[in-house]
Amino acid sequence: MRLKVRCRLILLFAFVSAGTLAGLLAFQRGERRRIRSLFARRVAEESAVFERLLVLYGHSLETFAYDYTYWDEMVRAIARSDTGWANENVVPVLGTYKADVVWAFRPDRVLFYQTAAEGREALAGFVLPESLFRPQLDTGRFCHFFFESPAGLMEVRGATVHPSNDPERKTPPQGYFLVGRLWDTAHLAELAFAHHQAQARVIVYVQTPDLAKAVVEAIRALYKKAQRELPNDRIELLTGTIRGSERDDLINRPVLQHLLTSEPPDQTEYLVSTSAGEVGADFDATHMV
């Protein structure tokens, strides 16, 4: 009789323990799903913000390309190859629209005019290849693309040229007008800094070690300007020039750990890297510039 009671108590205890454990496991799984859902929602929100920032940063170029391409004077300047008019009306507004270079082509896509902003001498003699803009402007009236220029990554916006009485651009193109802006150190740093108020994992990929170092310093400068703190262990530099021991140590630092494990940081973290951070790496960033 005692054995039966003892067995019943043991079985009861086992059932209660199993039920409690199952409940705890279910609660844990539910919490994990909830946290993942919240994090995914935050990533989606941050991605939407980033997309809006790209639109905002590109708005001045878009406006430049739009406003200057339904204008009788532009049509006449292209038809007459009047580079003097272009110098008087295009060069003074480069800074206003934050453009680094301008190209204007005749209807046959032969270059009519080109100018580069002060300090952008590397672009002065570079002619934008027709193959970059023709596909979009053959099928539409506007174009937008990125390409690798002699001075670095560049964003380009362009439009077909029409008379002032044709803002809807229904008549045949009288030329092509394209404007470009380099995605240089300052621009890349601003795009990265845009996430400073979120708990984001941001990777900035650049071409050279020198540019990577410059972007790191530019991000730090933006934090300082905003009177915000960016601890040294929240921004890391990864290039092919760092020593093997330094690279090994980097793996154990918070930025890399969070990128490798997808763990959300308690404040935004940055990895600025060359292609050394692409080969064999399995990073999970919330944003990439």
From TrEMBL:
Which InterPro entries did the record assign?
Answer: CHASE4 (IPR007892), P-loop_NTPase (IPR027417)
Q: Which Gene3D superfamilies match?
A: P-loop containing nucleotide triphosphate hydrolases (3.40.50.300)
Residue ranges of every copy of the CHASE4 domain listed in the record: 60-192
Task: Enumerate the Pfam families for this protein.
Answer: CHASE4
Q: Any transmembrane segments, and where? A: none
Q: Which SUPFAM superfamilies match?
A: P-loop containing nucleoside triphosphate hydrolases
Q: What is this protein called in UniProt? A: CHASE4 domain-containing protein
Please give the organism: candidate division WOR-3 bacterium
